[in-house]
């Protein structure tokens, strides 16, 4: 796939993902994942669309993602690798940095997320 294509697909996915996460019923996020997708959320693994949708239905009143940077790469097997860096604002808590990595793969003539890794930018380093 050409650079403009994977760049556009990546940007479109990031916009759709965080728009749904921030503005709609988060259970709908499961529709962006492939049936056997993997999510690692703060080190905890989840497999399958239903498990991922359930995990992402977090009990917050308001969530706002502010994207600072996003990078995209094509993989040698035709997938798209996405890395997102930004801030996450939850309810009345102060904003926190986060990093998220997605892998998109074309399945049945549509792009779906097959892999997702999320980490807050918190450094728990013992003193």
UniProtKB/TrEMBL annotation:
Magnesium among keywords: no
Main location: cytoplasm
Record domain NTF2: where: 9-120
Keywords per UniProt: Cytoplasm, Nucleus, Protein transport, Transport
GO cellular component: cytoplasm; nuclear envelope
Keyword Membrane (UniProt): no
Database matches in InterPro entries: NTF2, NTF2-like_dom_sf, NTF2_dom, Nuclear_transport_factor_2_euk
Highest taxon listed in the record's lineage: Eukaryota
BP-aspect Gene Ontology terms: mRNA transport; protein import into nucleus
CDD domains: NTF2
Pfam families membership: NTF2
Subcellular location(s) per record: Cytoplasm; Nucleus
Its job: Has a role in nuclear-cytoplasmic transport of proteins and mRNAs.
Protein name per the record: Nuclear transport factor 2
Protein's organism: Sparus aurata
